[in-house]
Design a protein that fits this description.
The protein is globular. The longest helix has 15 residues, at about 190-200. It has an 18-stranded mixed beta sheet that branches. The protein is an alpha+beta fold and about 325 residues long. It is built from 5 helices and 18 strands. About 20% of the residues lie in helices and about 40% in strands. The two termini are about 30 Å apart.
Length: about 325
């Protein structure tokens, strides 16, 4: 019998996000974090991730989610985020897409003009997507992240120095100019190679450890950045997982970068800064308030539906769940 999966696809600032609506069996666990571990270790679940991520149905930079039950009745939705190499702890661009989907699909009621909150449990914690609607259409989505914080400054990572910050995942931030590179498409192969090297150097070190839960440990990605009009307008690219490239400015990394800018004194509470991506799209971000374990931040962007799909795996197909060429 053929395997069938139904999805709705979005892009957030150019980065794909595949929302799986049907075809995934229940994933065991009492919490979202437990279900993330179970999905990675359960072949019948993980093969569905590979089916949707790998070629010929996906590509090396595909991203998406499986729905799971929320941790309690305080959340509207709960998801496991996935990419070609596994399951992430957070996904800001995915949270923005989920907010848009929840309102546009009618899952969450929203006014014709106004805002609606969508509360989502993810492996890093509970986040809230605030969806702004104008004349019945979703205009933008801002997500309030788990507390962001600076972890370390000026850490040696091979031939460069990196700042490490948390925004639902741990990122290493490196000025592109320190490698003689620009955040530009023509430098992308060199940025990918450098991003992998920085991550490999720092992963497993003390700065890569989450202080409360080892399941959240690990450097998720390397972010290369440069000014694009001053300290409050920057351009960046995140090289995450095993050499994947985020086309968006990366929501969780933008949250973490907001904590770094605030610590540098160039960003005050309530002040907005703009983060541009390697393809020219942007997110706006700000500090909402300080809390005991960091800063509450908001990252605002747009997401658009790109398609509705029914994916099929014929049991006779010798390629099975597909392949990764890069």
């Amino acid at each position: 019998m053929a395997t069938e999966l139904r999805t709705t696809d979005y892009h957030t600032a150019g980065e794909p996000f595949r929302i799986v609506l049907d075809g995934v069996p229940p994933i065991p666990g009492a919490t979202v974090r437990e279900r993330r571990e179970a999905a990675a270790s359960t072949e019948k679940i993980d093969r569905l991730r590979r089916l949707l991520c790998h070629e010929p149905r996906g590509h090396a930079d595909m991203y998406g989610c499986f729905f799971v039950p929320p941790d309690d009745d305080g959340a509207d939705l709960a998801v496991l985020f996935w990419h070609k190499d596994g399951y992430s702890t957070a996904c800001g661009h995915g949270t923005i897409a989920l907010g848009a989907w929840a309102v546009e699909s009618g899952r969450i009621a929203a006014p014709v003009d106004g805002t609606a909150d969508v509360t989502i449990d993810v492996p890093s914690g509970r986040v809230v997507a605030t969806v702004t609607v104008r004349a019945g259409a979703v205009e933008q989505v801002g997500f309030r992240n788990v507390p962001a914080r600076v972890v370390a400054r000026g850490v040696r990572a091979g031939g460069v120095e990196a700042d490490v910050a948390w925004g639902g995942a741990l990122y290493a931030f490196v000025p592109a100019v320190s490698l003689g590179l620009r955040v530009a498409a023509e430098d992308l192969p060199a940025l990918i190679a450098a991003g992998r090297q920085v991550k490999a150097t720092l992963d497993g070190t003390e700065v890569a450890r989450h202080p409360e839960d080892e399941r959240l440990s690990g450097i998720y990605g390397t972010v290369f950045y440069e000014d694009a009009g001053g300290p409050l307008q920057q351009r960046n690219v995140a090289v995450f997982a095993d050499g994947e490239v985020d086309r968006s400015p990366t929501g969780s990394a933008t949250s973490a970068r907001t904590a770094l800018l605030a610590a540098d004194g160039v960003l005050t509470e309530g002040q907005t800064w703009r983060n541009e991506s390697i393809v020219g799209t942007s997110f706006d971000a700000r500090v909402l308030s300080s809390v005991p374990d960091g800063l509450l931040t908001e990252v605002v962007g747009t997401a658009f539906r790109t398609g509705e799909h029914r994916f099929v795996l014929d049991p006779r197909d010798p390629l099975d769940t597909g392949f990764v060429l890069r």
